[in-house]
Amino acid sequence: MAALAAVGCREVPENSLSFDDVVYVEDNCPPVIELAGGDTLSIPVLGVNDFAIEDSLLIVSNRDNSGRVTVLEMDGTVLGRFLRTGRGPGEIVDFPGVSFVHFSTAENGHLEATWSNYTGEVTVWDVTASLQSGQSALVSRNLNLEDSPWLLDVLPLPDGECLIVLAGSDRNSIKRCVLSLDGNTKVTSPLERLNKAIVKKDTQSGTGMVAGSGEMVAFTVPGFNHISGNYAYEPVRGLVIEAEKTRNTINIFSPDGGYARTVCTYGDSPDDISSIDGNTVDECMTMRPKAYQDFFTALHWNMKAKEKCIRIYSYEGQALAEIPVPAGVSGYGFDPENGYLYLLDTDNECLVRYSYFLSKI
Fold first, then answer.
1. Would you tell me which of 72, 145, 258, 314 could form a disulfide with 318, CB atoms 3.0–4.6 Å apart?
2. DSSP-based three-state secondary structure for 98
3. Angle at CA 63, nearest 5°, toward 59 and 67?
4. How much helix, strand and coil, in percent to the nearest 5, is found in the chain?
């Protein structure tokens, strides 16, 4: 039987993506904020499929290969189009979308965006330098991974460090470490705890047809897909947010090990990873964590009930508010300074702006 850590009258499974200090959302039902009277933005960008709000800039991406990203003032004034598809200077082969990159402020004060691919290549786009020159300022490097061919994420931290997230060589676990500028790695106590989670049952397998060829191929779904997360970082507090995509936990921790707390987003216990069945279809997902100065947020999707909501959390893990959103919403962003919430309506490829009231949170 798995060892269990007691928290009050509850227990935390040893094989879980959870720390011992757990806050349960069901103990503090957050107030619901209903949105009304949204304004559809008129911006000179066709086919918006993703967006982010950073440093009072509206940054949107679309399918235009001549410039995958457009940077605008919040009033819709275009400042520049960047990231042309190609293999030349200032061009990119692939781009995940602006809500899947990590924006951070460099030591020189420049706004930067960082993303990576599975093979270990990390790309940094200097947004500020690009706006100054009118040309895409890109730098790429390869981490030359040895232990695993699967780089899942790279999260920039202060002083040139990064949180590196790798699939384990067994394909059923995830390894997290802090990588320094000089190439050294360290695993602090919160990372060590999360790294212990491992999927022990066989992963899902099947067959499929290769598009255009008619050829049938066999495939397996790696176990790490069931325990992977999305990340955000709040630099003032020095806290990382790890929102597990298909598990019921959000972890808040400092990379140096000084703070570690888990939010159990639903239910009365963090998911026991040992019970994961590779053939089980996950019914709830947590996506798009975003860190702001006074709170962090996540998009929760109950696929069985066909319901989505944005939940606002304190950095102590308390659920402060819940905002139901239409099922077609795939992205969101807050502008706390001006009291706006922006939603991406995927069906109509448009941005809708709502007023929200901090006094209700």
1. 314
2. helix
3. 60
4. 10, 45, 45
Q: Which two tokens stand for residue 325?
A: 């959103």
As a whole number of angstroms, the distance between CA 267 and CA 163 comes to: 29
Phi, psi dihedrals of residue 301, rounded to the nearest 5°:
-130, 110
Residue-wise pLDDT for 284-321, tens only, equals 889 999 999 999 999 999 888 789 999 999 999 999 99
pLDDT of residue 23: 95
CB 244 within 8 A of CB 17: yes
Number of Cβ within 10 Å of residue 308's Cβ equals: 21
What residues are paired with 253 via a beta bridge?
240, 260
Q: Helices then strands (H, E): number in the chain?
A: 2, 31
Contacts of 205 (CB under 8 A, 6+ apart): 218, 219, 220, 221, 278
> Which residues are CB-contacts of 94 (< 8 A; sequence separation ≥ 6)?
117
Cα(309)–Cα(297) distance, rounded to whole angstroms?
10
pTM of the entire structure? 0.88
Burial class (CB in 10 A: 0-12, 13-18, 19+), 103: buried
Quick: pLDDT tens for 106-115: 999 999 999 9
Task: With beta carbons less than 8 A apart as the criterion, state whether 72 and 80 touch.
Answer: no
Domains, the chain, ranges and CATH?
Answer: 4-360 (2.120.10.30)
